[in-house]
Amino acid sequence: MSVEAGTEPTTDPTTDPTAVNDETATAASAKGDTAPGTARAPEAGPAPSSVTMTKALNHALRDSLADDDTVLIFGEDVGRLGGVFRVTEGLRAEFGSNRVWDSPLAESGIIGTAIGMAMNGMRPVVEMQFDAYAYPAFEQIVSHVAKMRNRTKGRVSLPITIRIPYAGDIGGVEHHSDSSEAYWTSTPGLTVVTPSNPADAYSLLRESIASDDPVVFMEPKSRYWMKETLSLPVSTAPMNRAQVIREGTDATLLAYGPTVRTALDSAEAGAEHGLSIEVIDLRTLSPFDDETVSQSVRKTSRAAIIHEAAQFGGYGAEVAARLTERNFTYLSAPILRVTGFDVPYPSPKLEEFYLPTIERVLDALESWDWEL
């Protein structure tokens, strides 16, 4: 980096090298980073403990089942096995097979069943075992789940939460490492959420299940083993709001799910070159929080978005367009995208070359003309 100085960041990300992987991450290279810390702890509750994102999600599901008899959980292996990533572990034994059960290996059938249950007063929470496994259910989701409220002029809502473990960096292959957010965010009628840390994972999942409209809840697999010291239950910022998780004045990095850690590490590395970089965790991809993001971009005048999905037609293209439309006169440089490449997700040996890295982010920032 040869770019010149700005002011030092006012908030540093927390880094904890003690985070470990879960035993379920067999071939994984899962990154067990500590969360940047967005939790607002309750006034009273159990003593704080080290909580992984997996445990936070499990806790959220358990609390939702306990609080509302209409909440049901089903999907492939979510019952007896507790899910491939153990997110549903112990729930069948605690709440019974009438509320937590294993479905047939048929994703379209899972969503179709959820639609019927939701139309009859239930709140299904279903799991698509891996990101690309959701594609057989695509028609059910975009044609029926997303459109039912509009189709019935508001008379029928579908409070369905569709959990999708997504993205790569765990040593998986295609069908196990896709980032499919652009499909869901371009479908009106769906709320699309993705947490980047355990506290948000708990809080956003509770809010998603309580929502009267369908939510696609995307869980970053490489962050399942991220740890954070928490007292569950915990409430974070509301769904539909982005959060500034590191303040800066020279540029804004926009990230979500697995790339939030990349953005924070890049901001820290940029500080060594004199850059003051602000980082925003988008949290909810659709609807988009224009207010928070535009305020940041108007302050820094430069922005880059980081995601694992391929660039062409990707989510970053929509973000860049929205920011340009709303903030053109405030920008000093083009909005950049640091993304996966426009190829199918590669084999495990090659994914380190596919995924956005700190070096690629810093190279992108260096491409700006900082004299403007």
Description:
The protein is an alpha/beta fold and 372 residues long. Helix content is 30%, strand content 18%. It is built from twelve helices and 14 strands. A seven-stranded mixed sheet has the order 3-2-4-5-7-6-12, with helices on both faces. Strands 9-11-10-13-14 form a five-stranded mixed sheet, with helices on both faces. Strands 1-8 form a two-stranded antiparallel sheet. Helix 8 links the parallel strand 10 (251-255) and strand 11 (277-281). Helix 8 (259-271) packs across helix 12 (358-366) and helix 9 (290-300) crosses helix 10 (315-327). The longest helix is centred in the first third of the chain and has 15 residues, at 53-67. The chain is globular and about 65 Å long. It starts with 48 loop residues before the first strand and ends in a 6-residue tail after the last helix.
Global mean pLDDT? 90
Estimate the helix proportion, in percent: 25-40%
Report the strand count: 14
Order of helices and strands: EHEHEHEHHEHEHEEEEHEEHEHEHH
The secondary-structure class comes to alpha/beta
Strand order of the largest sheet: 3-2-4-5-7-6-12
Q: Which overall shape is indicated by the principal axes computed on the Cα atoms? A: globular
Beta-strand residue percentage: 15-25%
Low-confidence stretches: 1-31
